[in-house]
Amino acid sequence: MKLKYLIFISVVSWLFAIKANAAGQVEVLHWWTSSGEAKSVKVLKQMMEQQGDSWKDFAVAGGGGESAMTVLKMRAVSGNPPTAAQLKGHDIQEWGRLGFLTSLDAVAQQEHWDKVLPPVVANIMKYNNHYVAVPINVHRVNWLWVNPKVFKAAGATVPTTLAEFFVAADKIKAAGFIALAHGGQPWQDATLFESIALAVLGSADYRKAFVDLDMAVINSDKMVEVFQQFKRMKTYIDPQAEGRHWNSATEMVIDGQAAMQFMGDWAKGEFAQAGERPGIDYLCVPAPGTQYQFTFNIDSLAFFKLKGTEADNIAQHDLAKILLTPYFQKVFNLNKGSIPVRLDMDMSTFDQCALDSMQAFKQASLSGDLVPSFSQNLATTADVQSAIVDVVSEFFNKTDPDPILAPSRLAQVIKSAI
Ligand code: GAL
C-alpha cells in the first residue's frame, strides 16, 4: 500500500515537472507605470499566467518611452533582447531592418489578423510583408481633459476653438485656478504643440509638415502662428510644471487644482482609477479647433528573435495570440482609455469618451482627417521626431522665445535629421 502510494506520488510529481518545464516565460518591456497603465498591463500578465506561462515584467518608467528605448538598445546590443517590447510605427521598421525581429506569420494566419485589422494598421506591423509586431489599441492624442466644477466656479465655457480656449483660460486664471495642467517634459511639450499645430494648420498641412516633411509648410507663416499660439499657452501653466509626469498633471485636473489638460486618452485611465465618471466628474472634448480630426497613436508590441528554450518560443506565440483576442482587447482598452484595434468589437461596455473616439476615428478616416501623431512617434523616423521635439521643447522653455524665428530653426534641424 505504502509502495503504491509512493509510486503514485512520484508519477504525479513527474507529471507536474513536465508541465512546469513545458511552461515558458515571457519578458515584456513597456513604460506603462502610471496607475491606469499598470492596471491595464496586469490583464496581460494574468492572461499569460492562466495559460501556464510566466511573466517577467520589464517596466521602464517614463511616459513617451524615451528611457525604455535606451534600455532596449542596451539589452538588444548585448544579445539579450526581451520576448517583446513596446515599439511603435517607424521604430518597428528600423528594428526589422537591423534583423532583431521574428516573424509572427504562423499566428497571424491562424488568427486571421489580416481580416480583423484595418489595413493601415496591419501594414505598420509588418516588416518586409511579415508580421513582426502586434497592435494593441488606438489612442486619440488630440483630447482636452476638463474639470467641469472648476469651469463652473470660474464662470467659463468649455472651449471648442483656440480663441475660446484663451477666453476660458483667462477667466479660470482670474478665479484663482491653474488653467492648464502640464508636465514640463519634452514629449509633453510636443504633445501640446501637436494639437495646436493640428488646429492651426489643418489636417492636410499637418501631414505635409510632419509626415512628408515639406519645407514649404514647415517654414511658413502658418507655422509662425502655431508657435505664437503655443507660446501663449505657457502663461496658463503653473511654475512647478518642470519635469512633472503626465499623470501628476492629470491628478491636478482630477482634484480641481487645474481646469484642463491636453493629453492623449491614456489620461482617461487615471480618471477611471480615481473613480471619476465621464461626462459628470470630468469631460473629454476634442482639443480646441480639432473636432473632426484625429491624431492617432497605436501601441504595439514588437517580437524579438530569442535564444531561449522551445517553451519560451511557444510562450512568445501565446503572447502574440492573446493581444488580439476580443477579451484582451476589451479589458485592456477599458482600463487604458484607448479604443480596440480590432474592427469587429462589441463596444456596448465602453463609455462615451471611447464611443466618441471610435466615431471620430471612423469619420476622420473617411474625410482625410486621420493623421499620425508625431509626438508619439507615429509620423516619422525616431531621428526626425527627436529633432522636432528638441526644437519645440527648447522654444517652450525659453524665457521669451521668438515665434517668427522658430519655423526656420525647425526646418534646419529637420533637414539635418533626414
Ligand atoms: C505613450 C503610449 C501610451 C501612454 C503614454 C504615456 O507613448 O503610447 O500608451 O502610455 O505614452 O505613458
From TrEMBL:
It comes from the Bacteria. Part of a binding-protein-dependent transport system for a sugar. Belongs to the bacterial solute-binding protein 1 family. Gene3D superfamilies: Periplasmic binding protein-like II. This is Probable sugar-binding periplasmic protein. Keywords: Signal, Transport. The keyword Signal applies. InterPro entries: Bact_solute-bd_prot1, SBP. Residues 1-22 form the signal peptide. The keyword Transferase does not apply. It is found in: Periplasm.
